[in-house]
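User: Sequence recovery, please. Input:
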């Protein structure tokens, strides 16, 4: 039996129709969120490209703005000049490093038969071969690799991977150009849509986020230079051939936080073992010790000064980013954590300021 407003059983709560409407709104809201998350998951590759492009656009913005304002060139031309400078820089590095890499590879290829004979004639290898059949397993693995290379499906997969990589590089380059070109217009539009009393706060947040990304780039380059220089000095001292090339590769991969330096050090450790067991052990110990020093001392200290993040948060951010997005997550983890810190600090400061400006809510005692 329906109840009216004068019904004694009606306690003044919402009617059944109102409850049904609230339930339907909640259900549709949850469905909308689920669909949105599903679309985000489907387009995660494009979103990752967009995030990388936004990072690069912010990183090149100082150079673009300096050319744009200093030389009074149109912004598209300023961006094109920065792109051209980057291409020339990478081309120069390639022209310097590629001949050394070719020479080192040629020397290594001529030395491999001798190294293989040394390994095959060692007592340790003969013992392991008797126990585990290393020669047979190695031959089987080589045969499998050659079979995969000769397989048309493997060739097609390799071609598809190369094509996808080229598409990703071109897409990120185009998105970076567009974000750098229209970024100032977007910020001006966002400023115009913000209430006048909050425009200063928006500007402060933008500056803080920009400083985080710029600081991260400076810090990452500094860490890579330190790693490359330390590796080059050590490899030169112990007499490993191709030290400049191996050190450059190590420094380049050090741009990937935490794991990049370890991966970059594997080639020089392998080459060092070919020079002798003691030299290889020395290179392995150097790699392990330096990575501990870099991950726990050098990187957190530099990133704390450039990104202004606590070393603990730096390590946690990188681990979470690696778990979520792999290498891309590792690269973007520190700047995202820094920007998040800027936003949280702004919210906290604004909240404290608001609380300080509020009048007391307790009873007011008056003098009689």
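Assistant: Recovered sequence (368 residues):
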């Amino acid at each position: 039996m329906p109840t009216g407003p004068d019904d004694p059983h009606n306690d003044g709560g919402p009617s059944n129709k109102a409850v049904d409407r609230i339930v339907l709104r909640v259900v549709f809201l949850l469905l909308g969120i689920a669909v949105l998350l599903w679309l985000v998951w489907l387009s995660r590759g494009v979103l990752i490209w967009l995030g990388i492009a936004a990072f690069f656009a912010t990183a090149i913005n100082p150079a673009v703005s300096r050319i744009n304002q200093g030389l009074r060139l149109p912004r598209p031309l300023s961006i094109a000049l920065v792109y051209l400078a980057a291409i020339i820089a990478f081309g120069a590095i390639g022209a310097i490093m590629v001949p050394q890499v070719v020479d080192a590879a040629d020397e290594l290829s001529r030395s491999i038969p001798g190294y293989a004979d040394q390994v095959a004639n060692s007592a340790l290898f003969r013992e392991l071969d008797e126990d585990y059949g290393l020669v047979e397993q190695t031959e089987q693995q080589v045969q499998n690799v050659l079979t995969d290379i000769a397989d048309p499906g493997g060739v097609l997969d390799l071609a598809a991977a190369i094509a996808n990589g080229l598409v990703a590089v071109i897409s990120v380059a185009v998105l970076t150009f567009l974000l750098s070109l229209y970024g100032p217009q977007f910020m001006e539009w966002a400023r115009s849509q913000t209430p006048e009393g909050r425009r200063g706060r928006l500007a402060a947040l933008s500056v803080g986020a920009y400083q985080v990304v710029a600081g991260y780039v400076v810090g990452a380059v500094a860490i890579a230079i330190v790693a490359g220089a330390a590796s080059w000095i050590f490899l030169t001292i112990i007499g490993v051939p191709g030290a400049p090339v191996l050190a450059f590769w190590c420094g380049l991969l050090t741009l990937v936080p935490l794991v990049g330096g370890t991966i970059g050090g594997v080639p020089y450790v392998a080459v060092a073992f070919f020079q002798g067991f003691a030299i290889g052990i020395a290179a392995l110990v150097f790699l392990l010790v330096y990575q501990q020093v870099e991950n726990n001392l050098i990187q957190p200290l530099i990133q704390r000064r450039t990104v202004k993040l606590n070393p603990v948060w730096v390590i946690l951010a990188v681990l979470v980013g690696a778990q979520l997005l792999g290498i891309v997550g590792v690269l973007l983890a520190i700047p995202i954590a820094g920007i998040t810190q800027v936003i949280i600090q702004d919210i906290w400061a604004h909240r404290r300021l608001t609380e300080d400006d509020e009048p007391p809510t307790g009873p007011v005692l008056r003098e009689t």
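Residues 361-368 have pLDDT under 50 and may be disordered.
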